[in-house]
Write a structure and sequence with these properties.
- With about 500 residues, the protein is of the alpha/beta class.
- It folds into two domains: about 10-255 and about 470-485, Aldehyde Dehydrogenase, Chain A, domain 1; about 260-455, 3-Layer(aba) Sandwich (Aldehyde Dehydrogenase, Chain A, domain 2), CATH 3.40.309.10.
- It contains 19 helices and 25 strands.
- The strands form seven sheets. It has a seven-stranded mixed β-sheet with strand order 16-18-19-14-13-21-22, with helices on both faces.
- α1 runs parallel beside α10 (about 215-220).
- The longest helix has 20 residues, at about 45-65.
């Protein structure tokens, strides 16, 4: 396919080479801020490409898994340097990512420029992983070690594709697995270029990249006989489907799914400008399209009006528009389906008689109508049966609900099918820990919430319908391994 000179076409990456899809097909990628603006094309893989990628990963597995942890860590540290070695090339990828995704340039820059840090952090686990556990006080001598699973299929979503990839790919590689990684159609171009850079810094076949519609290749990849581990981040509905799919081959699976994160603001919380800004970023960063975003805020009744006023003041200063404009602080939603879903939740709340407040300055009203934009929105004291409270919004809207006692706040926070993250805002360490231990969530933040409060050295994942297993941290590496016990008669092996 010939591509106009101002557009980009990204290939697949299979067995050490950048290649077009076997069918020669590409799909179009448009700017969500300027929906008629074609940015480029991404290769549309077929099952033939899936087979080639899985076979390449399988072929590279023996040599890669035979390396020591320290040797694999050298590769990870080299990747971290390689990703930012050419500043002009990095800036071009950041601008491309902003155009295809919609997030503001600053957020795209954070995601792109800090990706290498995750590879470096994981490399630091090499010595710890190399230490086997020994049992010498039983009737046998036993060594407990671990071994990689094989080919790992990694699926990342469109909202923060590189950050989420950084929570699973370096872990899979250090653990000794090879990988086939699939990107979302809604975020294909700059992520594909970035992953190709990573793959080029690894031995041939260790990392392979697929792009294309999940309806065409998703099930085929995740049920492929060469795949020995699945790690998926995405919606709960798809996660349930993949769990059933994995059962056919008994493939181990890690699922990081949806969330409807609750935050509890106690009566002794420090509410100042800095706290309100942290709350704003927790809920509205990346237009609210973050799995661990603050999505329900429960506030002690004595501080309710104060909090609404303070958060409203921060939200009023925001500028909505094209993320490449340095004045803009919030871009569009990534796609029409997500914009319409969130707009429907807001409309339902308004139709029910709930107070809905929209904030921010629209920089270009004509562009606002063309793109997938929404203004940052508060929904005040909504009924708990409304979708904006019950479901994950994944957009720039936040319900705020008063409570009178800690027990009431806990009950409302835990009354959810989800259990990804939560937060407690208080001046008391004792109350914070007491409530945090009772919140049904895989991660609880204190006086913060979301990406800006996240410790990447800690395991991350959810309870209930927010998923199973963990990414990030040392535990994230163990997800890609299985235990291996070796025993001998007493006093022979050890």
């Amino acid at each position: 396919m010939s591509t106009p000179p101002n557009l980009i076409a990204t290939p697949l990456y299979i067995d050490g080479s950048r290649v077009n899809a076997s069918s020669g097909e590409f799909y179009q990628v448009f700017n969500p801020a300027r929906t008629s603006e074609l940015i480029g094309y991404a290769a549309s893989a077929s099952m033939e490409d899936v087979d080639s990628a899985c076979e390449a990963a399988h072929g590279a597995y023996h040599a890669w898994s035979a390396l020591s942890y320290a040797e694999r860590a050298v590769y990870l540290r080299s990747i971290a340097r390689h990703l930012t070695s050419d500043q002009d090339e990095l800036n071009a990828r950041i601008r491309l990512f902003t155009r295809e995704h919609g997030k503001v340039f600053k957020e795209a820059s954070i995601e792109m420029s800090r990706l290498g840090e995750r590879f470096s952090q994981v490399a630091d686990y090499a010595d710890r992983l190399a230490d086997d556990q020994q049992i010498t006080d039983g009737i046998f001598d036993t060594i407990i070690t671990r071994q990689p699973r094989g080919v790992a299929a990694l699926v990342v979503p469109w909202n923060w594709p590189l950050s989420i990839m950084g929570a699973k790919l370096p872990q899979a590689l250090l653990a000794g697995n090879t990988a086939v990684l699939k990107l979302s159609q809604q975020a294909s171009l700059a992520p594909a270029l970035t992953i190709a850079l990573i793959a080029e810094a690894l031995p041939t076949g260790v990392l392979n990249l697929l792009t294309g519609p999940s309806s065409r290749i998703g099930d085929g990849l995740l049920s492929h006989p060469r795949v020995r581990k699945i790690n998926f981040t995405g919606s709960t509905a798809v996660g349930k489907h993949l769990m059933r799919l994995a059962a056919d081959n008994l493939t181990p699976i890690t699922l990081e799914l949806g969330g409807n994160d609750a935050g509890l603001v106690l009566e002794d919380a420090e509410l100042n400008e800095a706290a309100f800004m942290r709350m704003y970023l927790a809920a509205f960063m990346s237009a609210g399209q973050i799995c661990m975003a603050l999505k329900r805020l429960y506030v002690h009744r004595s501080r309710y009006d104060e909090l609404v006023a303070g958060l409203s003041a921060v939200m009023s200063k925001q500028v909505i528009g094209d993320g490449l404009d340095p004045e803009v602080t919030m871009g569009p939603l990534n796609n029409r389906k997500q914009r319409d879903l969130v707009a429907g939740m807001i409309a339902e709340a308004r139709d029910a008689g709930t107070e809905v407040r929209e904030f921010g300055r629209v920089q270009d009203p004509v562009l606002f109508e063309e793109g997938y934009f929404l203004r940052p929105t508060l929904v005040l004291n909504p009924d708990s049966t409304l979708r904006v409270v019950r479901e994950e919004q994944f957009g720039p809207v936040l319900p705020i609900i008063p409570f009178d006692t800690d027990e009431e706040a806990l009950q409302m926070a835990n009354n959810s099918d989800f259990g990804l993250c939560s937060s407690v805002w208080t001046g008391s360490k004792e109350r914070a820990l007491k409530l945090a231990r009772k919140l049904e969530a895989g991660y609880t933040y204190i006086n913060g919430h979301g990406p800006m409060a996240q410790d990447n050295l800690a395991p991350f994942g959810g309870l209930k319908q927010s998923g199973i297993g963990r990414n990030l941290g040392y535990e994230g590496v163990l997800e890609f391994q299985e235990y291996h016990s070796i025993s001998s008669p007493k006093s022979w092996l050890l």
